[in-house]
Design goal:
The chain has about 300 residues and is α/β, with parallel strands linked by helices. The chain contains 12 helices and 10 strands. Helix 1 links the parallel strand 1 and strand 2.
């Protein structure tokens, strides 16, 4: 049985999948299986994948049903105790799995492990920003307290024991947006997170994402956490940061109904003054500020305007 199962969902990633697979096959820790789930690609992704010959690769092709279904399919097919996910346009450094394996062996009672990552833009590569202080080479932390800036769990830079999915559940296939954060919330309510400061993965930042805001599904339902957040201040604040993000995005596309839905759910007394001011700005002013902020983010000055 391999130590790691690596689940790679693929949907029309012909420009990236070769580099991603090479990054996995070049790992210094080699006891793993790769589960590629082709989620109905219509480009040359499959042809590129078939160009790799390695007995550790397990290839599955299925009709397009979305990334959550593809990841859940990979979980079901996995043989290892520890599961990693890697999106087909993200990248691991060669010691990614070796680093994870080292801390899993060091902390055998823990179930969830996250590694620091860096963000690559058109202009610069810079480390993600976290809301915790570095006290050692790793921290064991509360997910919500540690993720007020960038999330300490990122799909392509973490490992989960199989038991985590039995307890917290899989990715919610009914969500078209925030499906990863939804799972991290359920995991964070049940497990501490081992966070390792060593940067071992790279995320490609889409600086044009906001120009396509009108295509983003902003219908995110936090209602299932209503009772829990009422008695969990850390979860409440974390959800309010996400409501803030969704409220700003809603205002940018002039969706007043969605804006009020998220705005009215926020405890404004716990929100920083800067964020309260942003929420009350006219949409056209926000668009100007976001444009400036995106340019700054693209060169590594600050994180997203939305958190």
């Amino acid at each position: 049985m391999p130590f790691f199962s690596i689940v790679i969902p693929v949907y029309n990633k012909e420009k990236f999948v070769e580099k991603t697979l090479k990054g996995v096959l070049n790992q210094t820790f080699t006891d793993f299986e790769i589960i590629i789930v082709n989620d109905g690609s219509t480009d040359q992704s499959e042809t590129i994948i078939f160009g790799f010959e390695d007995e550790r690769i397990n290839y599955f092709s299925k009709p397009n049903e979305g990334v959550s279904t593809a990841r859940n399919f990979g979980i079901e097919k996995s043989c290892a105790d520890y599961i990693c996910f890697l999106d087909a346009d993200d990248y691991w450094y060669p010691s990614f799995l070796e680093t994870l394996q080292t801390y899993i062996q060091k902390l055998p009672e823990e179930k969830v492990f996250g590694l620091a990552y860096e963000i690559e833009t058109d202009e610069k590569t810079f480390p993600a920003q976290y809301s915790i202080q570095k006290t050692n080479d790793f921290e064991i932390v509360n997910y919500f307290e540690a993720s007020k800036k960038d999330s300490i769990l990122w799909t392509s830079s973490a490992a989960f024991h199989k038991d985590v999915f039995k307890i917290a559940g899989n990715f919610n296939i009914n969500l078209k947006n925030f499906e990863d954060i939804h799972l991290w919330i359920r995991i964070g309510l049940r497990f501490p997170i081992v966070f390792v400061w060593k940067i071992q993965a790279k995320y490609s930042y889409d600086s044009f994402g906001l120009s396509r805001s009108e295509k983003i599904n902003l219908d995110v339902d936090f209602s299932e956490f209503a009772l829990t957040e009422a008695n969990n201040p850390e979860l409440k604040h974390f959800l309010d940061l996400n409501r803030f993000s969704l409220a700003i995005k809603s205002k940018l596309i002039n969706d007043t109904k969605k804006f009020l839905q998220y705005y009215n759910g926020i405890d404004l007394t716990k929100l920083p003054l800067r964020k309260r001011i942003l929420l009350n700005l006219p949409g056209f002013v926000l668009k100007i500020l976001v444009s400036v902020k995106l340019k700054l983010t693209n060169i590594g000055l600050g994180n997203s305007v939305f958190r």
